[in-house]
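pipeline/complex-builder :: batch 7 item 3
reading input block
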Amino acid sequence: MDHLKIADRVFSSRLFLGTGKFGSPQLMGEAVSASGSELVTVSLKRIDAETETDTLLEQLQLPGVQVLPNTSGARNAREAVFAAQLAREALETNWLKLEIHPDPKYLMPDALETLKATEELARLGFVVLPYIHADPVLCKQLEEAGTAAVMPLGAPIGTNKGLRTLDFLEIIIEQSRVPVIVDAGIGAPSHAAQAMELGADAVLVNTAVAVSSDPVRMAEAFKWAVAAGRAAYVAGLGGMRRHAGASSPLTAFLDDLNA
Amino acid sequence: MFSEIFECYDWDTIAGEIAGKTEADVQAALQKSKRNLEDFKALISPAALPFLEQMARLSHGLTQKRFGKTIQMYAPLYLSNECQNICTYCAFSLDNNIPRRTLSGAEILQEIAVLKQMGYDHVLLVTGEANKTVGVAYLKETIRLIRPHFSNISMEVQPLDEADYALLRGEGLHSVLVYQETYHRDHYKQYHPKGKKSNFQYRLETPDRLGKAGIHKIGLGTLIGLEDWRAEAFFTALHLQYLERTYWRTKYSVSFPRLRPIEQAGQNDPKVFERYMSDKELVQLICAYRLLDEELELSLSTREEERFRDHIIPLGITSMSAGSKTNPGGYAVSPQSLEQFEISDERSPEEMAAVIRAKGYEPIWKDWHPVWMQ
């Protein structure tokens, strides 16, 4: 079977889902179910750990679904590490999606602080999945720092623009020794399929599903697209041909020379 | 400082340029994916009114893309109506002979018990300007007192110095709202004839001080009903763009307080404001801000009426208050005292949340973590 392994966990679905922006927690829960996703991100800042029933978390008590807290809102490594420790306590998981964006407008990840926080969190025993720019060098540095995966962005978060960082994603996928999860910017199932065809290990989708007029159906569409893209990658895509082969091959003379 | 940029603009020239925008300017602005201040002028101009439906559709889509189907909920907590300023549009004005009150620590706890029961986790502290009784020390104590009870604390009080903002940020203050009231420098003096507030320059430079102090979110706005709202909107947007570029770690929000009638001592009828803005124009302004800035938070208070608030939910607004009291002690301690202004939408937070849900949106009560309030 074609499974994805991150740290000590094995996933059969390669679609990860974000849980923000949905019109209601119920709809979010239904979309998660329809997506078949086994790993869903939840923002620590949205969770009310004090009240016994947090509606968001309640909806995510689904069989086979693991909650991955994120540090959205943290502006530097110090705040992120602090948030990670709280998340570990509140959600009883040492898995963490590390998000550090000092820029609240475009939510651009801070490479320097993310590397710093990854080193620290890995040391503290966290399974770290950092959200980053599609920066191949940073990915290798994060690997050395002990990251469990890398999550490069396809386009600015929430833009639905698709794989604008394609060339860099290809390099990252080629070089990576940890799973590559394409995060942010995936706006259509075709974008998700494209990422999987490239050889990404998984994709994370949120806005495209949550903001759809039928999130449940869209979640299902992404499930198929991710599976299709993965199957195509595993099967091996045929090389692309722009036109038919020349009738007299350019290297045919080699046969004549050796004759 | 923004004041240097502000010097380069002339109110009447700007108002004239906005009035001169044509249908073609509006169409060009609508077709762009990134819009500038010239486009904004077209979108707030009278020429854009026939395109309101198109603007609303674009605004709806952009807002959902960024903020999802969510509305953030917050409540104002009036701490004091003491004020040393004369503001011609405010019920708390020094020259309005009303009973004055500043809440004590025990009273604040009574008030917040009610707010917590309503479900609130984000609170906005409001005061007049009385630096001796309601100064930085009072604000600091209050933030300390309420911090264990709220995930996010905002403040709408008199402008302070940078060091004071930094100090309050250290205590857990997240956001500060300081409306310029009006960017019309000459008329500003007429509306604020007395008190520290009459210093236009100090107020204009307040967002700079907030940015330097590292306050997480800065709220801008002008009072609608004093001057030409279109020119006010241009200057607000100019200010916003300057701030976004300069203090890029900070979040921004804009509010659109349409002045409500106020009660004045010795007067039978409430005072009303003439340069009013129609509902249609308010929708135009909200959509224009969204088309200019996809990431900007846009807030709508209970100044607006029920029907308007219900329909505006999907059009670009990102945060709302409900069940608000605009008098110190209004929630529990002394519900009968004079309000700063009459609210229009008196529905409870629970009722408002039900309306938001019926629109297919989720009311968000908590979207910050106290861990970052330091």
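note: The first helix of chain B runs from residue 2 to 6.
queue -> next item
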